[in-house]
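Page 37, continued from 36.
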C-alpha cells in the first residue's frame, strides 16, 4: 500500500504529498529527471545482467556512466545521477536539508532517533504525488533506452528497410 506524507516546497510554500522509499527493498538504483524531477527506479540486475554490480553502487542514485542507458523522461528531460526531485507546482529543485525537516518528522512516528540522509543520492529516494492525478506518483520503472535483451538481437532499424524494398 502506498503511504503518502505531506511535505512543503521551500520556494512556493505549497504542500505536496510524497512517498519515501528505501532503494534496497527491490535492489534498485534510481535517478531523478533533471527537468521535472520525476523519479526513475531501475533494477540494478538490469544494469548488470551478467555480472554483479560493485557493492559500492548498491541501493543509491545511479552512477554517471549509466545515464546513457536510460531513455529520456516523458517531459523531454534526462535522468541524471546528480539531479534532484522538484516541486510539482513550481518545478524548483527541492532542498534536501529543508525536506529533511518534514521527512524526519513524518518518519519519527516509528523511531524517534531516526535521521534522514539529507541528500538526494543515498539509499532513500522520494516520489511526489502528481497533483493532476491524485494517488499517482511521479515515478517510472526501468526506463531503459534499449532493454539489455534487445542489444544482442539484430537492431530494429532493419525492418523499415525490408518493408520499403518490398513495395
Ligand atoms: Zn514549489
Ligand atoms: Zn522529466
Amino acid at each position: 500500500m502506498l503511504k503518502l506524507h505531506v511535505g512543503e516546497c521551500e520556494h512556493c510554500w505549497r504542500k505536496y504529498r510524497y512517498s519515501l522509499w528505501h532503494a534496497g527493498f527491490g535492489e534498485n538504483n534510481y535517478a531523478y529527471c533533471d527537468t521535472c524531477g520525476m523519479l526513475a527506479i531501475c533494477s540494478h540486475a538490469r544494469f548488470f545482467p551478467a555480472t554483479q554490480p560493485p557493492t559500492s553502487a548498491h541501493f543509491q542514485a545511479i552512477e554517471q556512466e549509466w545515464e546513457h542507458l536510460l531513455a529520456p523522461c516523458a517531459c523531454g528531460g534526462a535522468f541524471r545521477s546528480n539531479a534532484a526531485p522538484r516541486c510539482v507546482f513550481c518545478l524548483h529543485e527541492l532542498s534536501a536539508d529543508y525536506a529533511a525537516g518534514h521527512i524526519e518528522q513524518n518518519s519519527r512516528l516509528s523511531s524517534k532517533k531516526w535521521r534522514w540522509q539529507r541528500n538526494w543520492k543515498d539509499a532513500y529516494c522520494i516520489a511526489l504525488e502528481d497533483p493532476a492525478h491524485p494517488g499517482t506518483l511521479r515515478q517510472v520503472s526501468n526506463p531503459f533506452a534499449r532493454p539489455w535483451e534487445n542489444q544482442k538481437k539484430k537492431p530494429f532499424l532493419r525492418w523499415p528497410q525490408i518493408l520499403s524494398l518490398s513495395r
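The longest strand covers residues 15-22. Flag for discussion at group meeting. Confidence is low (pLDDT under 50) at residues 153-167.
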